[in-house]
Amino acid sequence: MLNNNLEESKDSSLIDQLNDLNFQRTILIYKIIGEYSNADEVDSIADFLLSENENRMAVPYLLNQNRFDEVSKIISEIKQEEQEDIDYVSLVNLEISLKEKGKTWFDISDDDEKLIRQIANDSTLLSRQAQNILELVFGEDYPVVNPELPQEINKDERQFSYEGTKPLLRLYPNPASAFLTLVINGITSLKYDVAMQDIFGRSILQKQFFENGKYDIPVQGILAGMYLITISADDNQILTYKLIISK
To answer: Which backbone phi and psi does 93 adopt, to 5 degrees?
Structure first.
């Protein structure tokens, strides 16, 4: 029994270490994407992601470069067993079809609209993407349901702040519409990097701060939807959470 418990403990520890490594790798990839964007080398992002076997994350960048054959190959390899995967493949195929014809979301047919509305009503992350399209094309307003977020994650404890304590970092409000407020208090670092990515992994926003204080980050020009926010201090990731942008 003791040996079994030890083995289970070792397995659990290894799994935790692997999860932490994967988490840190994801954050590093987002950071590199941001660096490419800041250097106006967006066209290099797709090839970088493909070299890291992050094929699905590369799709939006490939679409922007009209590399449709590569996108078609990637999505053909997705096992459509979950509704989210089915919705994803449907939206990507529709975007390919539009781009190949030199069209945009404003040129969708009645059947296309029906598909987008169906996805918009599904309970997946892609439903917000479909709602964004409907808001863009038809000016419709979809209320944002505030999820059980934000979930702040500390690189060591996986919990960053608790009710009743004074956090060293705060981001609010969530959902946000015009401004996202960042409060940095009591941390000694040379610089803080704030990065925002959309659900497809595209870099949306990059900001850098060099001292403690309160900062208002404008987000009014960002489409409504769900985004991933990461904050790094001296190039070490210390906080990540999901943010809702509402209009």
So the answer is: -60, -40
At 123, the pLDDT band (50, 70, 90 cuts) reads confident
> Domain 169-245 is of which CATH architecture?
Sandwich (2.60)
Spacing of C-alpha 149 from chain mean position:
14
Report domain extents, the chain.
Answer: 2-138, 169-245
pLDDT in tens, 100-119: 999 888 899 999 999 999 99
Task: Calculate helix-pair angle for 55-64, 83-100, nearest 10 degrees.
Answer: 20
- At 239, give phi and psi (nearest 5°): -155, 135
- In whole angstroms, give the CA distance from residue 59 to residue 91: 12
> What is the Cα–Cα distance from 19 to 152, expressed in whole angstroms?
16
Among 240, 194, 205, which Cα is nearest to 26's? Answer: 240
pTM: 0.58
